[in-house]
Amino acid sequence: MCSFKFRFRDQDGDVASDESYEFSDLFAAIAEAKRVLGEMALEGLPGPSDEASAVEVLNADGFPVARVGLTISVDLFAT
What is the pTM of this model? Predict the structure, then answer.
């Protein structure tokens, strides 16, 4: 088992979790980050001033090892 932490970025800013979670490997931690990002999206999608909502996966030492993000873009076309 490997220990990971998460850092969340949304319209409210960045928040790092102090709690560690045990996963079988990095890919299992990324799968959990995807699930959490889906829950974050239910609370609100990134707005015009937000670049993205994201969950960073941090290793046991607190260094980022992966990032799962959601970006919304709007393209306007002249009519």
Answer: 0.81
76 within some domain? no
Distance, CA of 23 to CA of 16 (rounded, Å): 18
Asked, for residue 75, whether it belongs to a domain, the answer is: no
Give the tens place of pLDDT for each residue, 1-44: 999 999 998 776 677 788 999 999 999 999 999 999 999 888 77
Domain that holds residue 24: 2-70
Decide: residue 22, CB within 10 A, 0-12 exposed, 13-18 middle, 19+ buried: exposed
C-alpha 65/C-alpha 23 separation (Å) is: 14
Number of domains the chain is built from: 1
